[in-house]
Amino acid sequence: xxxxxxxxxxxxxxxxxxxxxxxxxxxxxxxxxxxxxxxxxxxxxxxxxxxxxxxxxxxxxxxxxxxxxxxxxxxxxxxxxxxxxxxxxxxxxxxxxxxxxxxxxxxxxxxxxxxxxxxxxxxxxxxxxxxxxxxxxxxxxxxxxxxxxxxxxxxxxxxxxxxxxxxxxxxxxxxxxxxxxxxxxxxxxxxxxxxxxxxxxxxxxxxxxxxxxxxxxxxxxxxxxxxxxxxxxxxxxxxxxxxxxxxxxxxxxxxxxxxxxx
Length: 262
Prior knowledge:
By secondary structure, this protein is an alpha+beta fold. Among the domains are: 8-90; 157-218, no CATH class. Helix content is 23%, strand content 20%. It has seven helices and nine strands; from the N terminus they run H-H-H-E-E-E-E-H-E-H-E-H-H-E-E-E. It has helices at 8-12, 14-29, 31-37, 103-106, 137-146, 156-168, 176-180, and strands at 38-48, 51-58, 66-73, 82-90, 127-129, 152-154, 191-193, 202-205, 216-218.
């Protein structure tokens, strides 16, 4: 740590530092707003025995927590203070943009549009050379038989990541629709199994009326369009059962007497 105190001239030159900050602010905001854009003096920090940086609050709109940084220097004890640098810097509580990320780290599923190209990154662990390290018996059998095929295939890591993503997605067993379904995709006639090592767990829905038509579904997913669904046909109107009451005594009615003739 530097134990040499900076020249008192640089520490006391607050007015010089403020004037430099106002001049810099005027270049962007205009002279009318420059004076009010430089706020209270915050601190003076020693850079080395011949340089001190003064910090002022930045009060212009949109720069909350930022501060003006003015570095003053001197050639010696008797040399005058001069302005070396003026810059607007974010403070510890400043609102700043998120850290920059390369495009291949920013892209998200669904970002790819018509005409866009998305090459896999160099050394992508999800892919391996075909025929050599596919670790998929179905792929290797075909390669040995005909000697042709894709240049690259999914590695074990790539398949595991895909399986986990599909399991946790909207067509996995944890979806609300799956929990309310009368049956699972694994027992549905519209279920088309995938080939290879994922065959036992995933397939594609082939029911045009199902919400997952054409999408990958797990065997534990399900919906109301299961092939075994049967609807019980009942009357929409409740009809009371007929009741026969045979406990009523019936008596023959006597004919009415003829009126007396005169």
